[in-house]
Design a protein that fits this description.
eight-stranded antiparallel beta sheet, alpha+beta, 6 helices, two-stranded antiparallel ribbon
Length: about 270
């Protein structure tokens, strides 16, 4: 190899090294480096905060929708349960999990349709800490017109972008019974947000456990190149129910894993 070729070879190597580093950095311009490193190693990070004196979130990615998800609690009283979660899953793994891996679509348009597919939440599974077994989380799931007009199922709203969409959903929860939820969506090319609030009271073991707007479950999916970063945060202000408080908290926290697992199986 002559001197000129060596110089060209060296220049080419440095070029790809430089832009390769930039590309890698661009895949992590949402999280602190130490958090991203832990997330890559473990696949998920979960923080559970049980306090009535306030809370501080520490996993929130630096995006518009994630900041919105972290700031949806607007009641005068602090929640007594906060669950903040990060997940990292490769698009290749999502294809492998798919019932049709050869034709599985892992685009943001697909993500948008999944989080709006309320009817497909019926039959979602979760792990019951009390019974130590897998059970059905939602026995019924469909879009409805309003809190008062909730008995007639409406079709899922899947056309076009989810950005700005507001709907109501009826869910029959295995632990908290039948209830209507309000849902709001936001969408850009790089992230999709899904913000859920209970619009009716929740009961647990025939006891009123949560008032309306006392549960918020937010999910944001970020396109991270060959993977998705999923940020989920749950806020809840539940009543102090004798002998049932701990079970209520565990049951609420389990909904994060259930929704995330359901999401990964819909591609």
């Amino acid at each position: 190899m002559n001197l000129m070729n060596r110089r060209n070879f060296l220049f080419t190597g440095l070029f790809f090294l430089f832009f390769g580093q930039i590309f890698c950095q661009e895949q992590n311009n949402f999280l602190k480096d130490e958090i991203y490193a832990e997330l890559k190693e473990k696949g998920s990070i979960k923080h559970l905060i049980q306090s009535k004196d306030g809370f501080e979130l520490s996993l929130t990615p630096d995006t518009e929708f994630c900041k919105r998800a972290a700031n949806t609690w607007n009641l005068s009283e602090n929640p007594n349960l906060v669950s903040e979660n990060l997940f990292l899953i490769s698009k290749e793994e999502l294809k492998e999990k798919s019932s049709n891996p050869e034709n599985a679509e892992v685009s943001m348009d697909k993500v948008s349709k999944i989080v709006r597919s309320i009817s497909k939440m019926k039959g979602m599974q979760y792990f019951s800490n009390g019974d130590q077994r897998w059970e059905t989380l939602y026995h019924q799931a469909y879009v409805c017109k309003s809190v008062k007009e909730k008995n007639e199922p409406l079709p899922d709203v899947l056309e076009g972008s989810a950005d700005g969409l507001k709907i109501f959903a009826f869910l029959e929860d295995n632990s908290f019974g039948k209830s209507v939820y309000s849902l709001e969506y936001a969408q850009t090319e790089q992230e999709i947000g899904f913000f859920l609030t209970n619009a009716e009271s929740w009961t647990y073991a025939f006891v009123k456990a949560l008032n309306p707007e006392n549960v918020k479950i937010n999910m944001v999916v970020i396109d991270n190149g060959d993977s998705f970063i999923v940020y989920m945060v749950l806020f809840a202000k539940h009543k102090k129910v004798p002998l049932l408080g701990e079970r209520i908290q565990k049951s609420l926290a389990n909904r994060i894993d259930a929704i995330y697992n359901w999401f990964t199986l819909q591609f």
